[in-house]
């Protein structure tokens, strides 16, 4: 399999010259990211044409059912977005700004983060706005974040809440989502935002590093370090295995007409106490490395802690499930075991 730059496309899977003309072209932005790489693995199993777009080398799954083209580009450069998506039938936007040890801690006024998190959505819309009135409206599936709603005193989120984000990351994600939904309202495209909860996990086919809290704790446990919490362990999180998140985004591709024009929440419907989750990680890791389990301890929160770090989040994704038929498949215990095994073997 060869990679491409510019407009020349190299294909793995079914030969492009023999590809049925009615196969839709799905362009995946951020194909080497943590979520994006899992989406690519899922798309590769579908009867589609897929253009996987990323800055670095793109690992295309072997024996792909889809016709997969690897397309390397820095989307922040002038004209790069138009070259990548102008002929797309569907775009899945999973690009994330990554700096430091996480993707969700952004300083106010960070122009580089804004260029990626908001500017790329603006570029995408401008490309499709220039298609002309006679062109069929493309569909855009955006990987948003459940945290966009901001800190809220509500036991279960269902998508009816008023968005009042506090952190810069959540403000930028919400700004991008609003641009998308405004473009949908104007008829430029058919857009929907799938707000993801805490997504985590590694498996034998994973190709991207997870910088989230679960993977961080697994790595600490493997190194023999204590697992630290900024609270007493009762704070709950809706934890979704990355493969289930990827299946949801791909399921959205088949239901863009029903999903367009609004945001949808994704989750398991369960709030897992982080103290119990961390203790499970410590126990699973201890068995894997044949050493005593590391301690799980509460510590003083750092100065950069945000209000959302201390709020429990449980998500009701019934609305999305009714439209798409999607259901989470991988139980938490199995997902944690897969993650421990995968990281221990690296």
The fourth-level CATH homologous superfamily of the domain at 3-201 and 239-267 is NAD(P)-binding Rossmann-like Domain
- Mean pLDDT equals 90
- The number of helical elements comes to 10
Q: What is the CATH architecture annotation of the domain at 3-201 and 239-267? A: 3-Layer(aba) Sandwich
Regions with little confidence, pLDDT below 50 for 5+ residues = 6-12, 14-18
Strand content: 15-25%
Q: Which geometry do the CA atoms define?
A: globular
Domain NAD-dependent epimerase/dehydratase: 26-267
Organism: Streptomyces massasporeus
Pfam family, one: Epimerase
InterPro entries: Epimerase_deHydtase, Lipid_A_modif_metabolic_enz, NAD(P)-bd_dom_sf
Keywords:
33% helix; 346 residues; Rossmann fold; nine-stranded mixed sheet; 17% strand; 10 helices; two-stranded parallel sheet
Q: Would you write up a description of this structure?
A:
It comes from Streptomyces massasporeus. This is NAD-dependent epimerase/dehydratase. InterPro entries: Epimerase_deHydtase, Lipid_A_modif_metabolic_enz, NAD(P)-bd_dom_sf. Residues 26-267 form the NAD-dependent epimerase/dehydratase domain. The protein has 346 residues and is of the alpha/beta class. It has a domain at 3-201 and 239-267: NAD(P)-binding Rossmann-like Domain (Rossmann fold, 3-Layer(aba) Sandwich). 33% of the residues lie in helices and 17% in strands. The chain contains ten helices and 15 strands. It has helices at 34-43, 80-85, 111-129, 168-185, 213-222, 242-253, 256-259, 274-289, 318-324, 332-344; strands at residues 3-4, 11-12, 25-29, 49-54, 67-72, 90-93, 139-145, 190-196, 198-200, 227-229, 236-237, 239-241, 263-265, 272-273, 296-298. The strands form four sheets. Strands 1, 2, 3, 4, 5, 6, 7, 8 and 13 form a nine-stranded mixed β-sheet that branches. Strands 9-12 form a two-stranded parallel sheet. Strands 10-15 form a two-stranded parallel ribbon. Strand 3, helix 1 and strand 4 form a beta-alpha-beta unit. The two termini are 25 Å apart. The relative contact order is 0.13.
């Amino acid at each position: 399999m060869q990679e491409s730059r510019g407009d020349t496309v190299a294909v793995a899977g079914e030969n492009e010259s023999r590809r049925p003309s009615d196969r839709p072209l799905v362009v995946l932005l951020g194909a080497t990211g943590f979520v994006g790489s899992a989406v690519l693995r899922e798309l590769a199993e579908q009867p589609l044409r897929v253009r996987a777009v990323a800055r670095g080398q793109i690992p295309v799954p072997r024996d792909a059912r889809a016709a997969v083209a690897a397309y390397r580009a820095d989307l922040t450069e002038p004209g790069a977005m138009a070259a990548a998506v102008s002929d797309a039938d569907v775009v899945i936007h999973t690009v994330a700004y990554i700096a430091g040890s996480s993707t969700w801690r952004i300083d106010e006024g960070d122009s580089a983060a804004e260029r990626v998190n908001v500017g790329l959505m603006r570029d995408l819309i401008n490309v499709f706005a220039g298609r002309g009135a006679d062109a069929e409206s493309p569909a855009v599936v955006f990987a948003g974040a459940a945290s966009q709603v901001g800190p809220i005193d509500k036991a279960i989120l269902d998508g009816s809440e008023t968005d009042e984000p506090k952190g810069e990351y959540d403000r930028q994600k919400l700004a991008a989502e609003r641009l998308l939904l405004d473009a949908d309202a104007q008829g430029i495209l058919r857009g929907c935002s799938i707000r993801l909860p805490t997504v985590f996990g590694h498996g034998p086919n994973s190709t991207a590093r997870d910088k989230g809290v679960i993977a961080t704790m697994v790595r600490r446990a493997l190194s023999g370090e204590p697992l630290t919490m900024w609270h007493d362990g009762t704070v709950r999180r809706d934890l979704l295995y990355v493969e289930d998140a990827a299946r949801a985004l791909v399921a959205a591709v088949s239901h863009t007409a029903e999903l367009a024009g609004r945001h949808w929440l994704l989750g398991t419907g369960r709030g897992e106490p982080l103290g119990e989750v961390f203790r499970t990680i410590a126990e699973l890791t201890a068995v894997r490395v044949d050493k005593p389990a590391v301690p799980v301890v509460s510590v003083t929160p750092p100065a950069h802690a945000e209000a959302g770090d201390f709020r429990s989040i449980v998500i009701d994704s019934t609305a999305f499930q009714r439209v798409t038929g999607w259901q989470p498949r991988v139980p938490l215990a199995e997902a944690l075991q897969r993650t421990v095994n995968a990281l221990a073997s690296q």
